[in-house]
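Amino Acid Chain and Its Fold in Token Form
===========================================
Scope: a single protein chain, as residues and as a discrete description of its fold.
Amino acid sequence: labelled as such and written in the usual single-letter residue code.
Position: the record begins directly beneath this header, with no further notes in between.
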Amino acid sequence: MLLASVAGAADWPQFRGSQREGIGSEEDLLTSWSESQPTVVWRQSIGTGYSAVTAVGDRLYTMDADESQEHVLCLDAATGKTLWKIEAGEFVQAELGDGGPRSTPTVVDEVVYTATSQSRLLALDAKDGSLLWAKDLTEWGKVPRFGYAVSPLVDGDVVIVEVGDKDKSPGVVALDKKSGELRWSSLEGPAGYSSALPVEIGGVRQYVLFRRAGQEAVSLSTAGEVLWRFPTPKALASIVMPIFMAPDRIFLSTSDDQFGGHMIRIRRQGEVFAAEEIWSERLMRNHFNTSVVVNEHLYGFDNGTLRCLDAASGERRWAKRGFGKGSAVAADTLLFVLSDAGLAALVRATPEGYQELGRLQVMEGRSWTAPSIANGRLYLRDFDEIVSLELRGGAGVAQEGAP
């Protein structure tokens, strides 16, 4: 079942939160920001990488890299102090001159599942980081051009990840979560940069993937059988995740001008599923950070513009520039926006125009990693540090280095 069943209600136990939708369960949060609130509780130096912060109980998990090694880290959520740090694999400079891990850890039943940029999949004891098992995903194909970026999906007894090589099988594998042994495989072609989304449509549990291989969105059953396909031949850079809107809609987006955003509906007739397009629009071209849905409206970055669209029709509601290629998560009908230069803003999630409720320059470095929100805290990171913000108006326990 979904990770919310094994993690605390206010935890953020995997990439994009408990349901992989970018929305936290927090309530009673600050509804405006001022010079004194939110409080910066602590800052913690960190190495390079794009791995987001996972929060379970009183611990945080993420990844970083130095000049020689990638690491998995566990931090104390209250203070930011490092509880354990393990070497995960060799650091390799990425094609565009940056590097470090892209995968965000998934934490289930006190086990941390994550992957290095060079496709080494790890299962670690969440208490001390000791290795339970490891799998070299290059067994099924080479490392993607910009490094392995998929965040593992743990569902039931399996870990689901994209693997593969050009025109070869398999392209997706399900590994036993306790041993790492292969349980089933499906599809073909190379791994991309998006991550699998678990959904239930027509009473059937399934995994939706937005794939670079074959240029398609595709759904697999819990046994790896293809349930439906939606071709996306104009999508050249499928990086963000699909977005599910119950009971049967899925939004797909890329930064490519020719593709833009597509809303599709999945219909079931008997045992057969079929995907049909509802609308398409070049007003929500997500590059590397996925949008969120609040009250039937999409909020996200159309390349360098923050936008709100009506999810039913794709019509524009408002647009706001100034954040660069930013990111956003949501909770309690609020948007927590992070610019690509470390500016955090609180924005009301409403289609009735852009309503900013406060802003704070939190970091100065490249901030391409989406925020995480858990247990009353907002966690932000760039290539130099992680910052914890208190969102409930408490004074916090600001650590050395915090303003």
